[in-house]
Design a protein that fits this description.
Radius of gyration: 36 Å
Distance between the termini: 112 Å
Structural class: alpha+beta
Strand order of the largest sheet: 3-4-5
Low-confidence stretches: none
Helix content: 25-40%
Largest sheet: 3 strands, antiparallel
Shape: rod-shaped
Order of helices and strands: EEHEEEH
Number of helices: 2
Length: about 110
């Protein structure tokens, strides 16, 4: 057996027709490998039936789409909004006091 090339299972990716090599499929019985071009996962199993043919089972799986990262909100945005709201409330109270002194706004009879 010295000098003979090793048998390697090669499968074409259904998306991009790139060759996906599965070198350990014969020795282990199953193997999974990604396509180098599009990232599709190829899972293959080989099973020898007693005195019969070898049965191959192939599965192809698309990789999940990458998650989009949401922009991180700064904690200062919430604090700034709170400070603006407090400032507006204080300005409102000051205006009510100022108008109360000149009798423009009256509370009660």
């Amino acid at each position: 057996m010295i000098g003979q090339p090793k048998l390697r299972m090669k499968i074409l990716c259904p998306n991009c027709n790139q060759v996906v090599e599965l070198p350990h499929l014969k020795s282990r019985g199953d193997q999974m490998a990604p396509c180098k071009k599009c990232g599709m996962l190829v899972h293959a199993t080989a099973e020898q039936v007693d005195g019969g043919p070898q049965i191959w089972d192939l599965h192809f799986e698309k990789p999940p789409a990458p998650k989009k990262e949401e922009p991180k909100r700064k904690e200062k945005d919430g604090c700034l909004r709170l400070l603006v709201l407090i400032f507006i409330a204080l300005v409102g109270l000051i205006l009510i006091k100022a108008c109360g002194d000149t009798n423009i706004i009256t509370f009660g009879p």
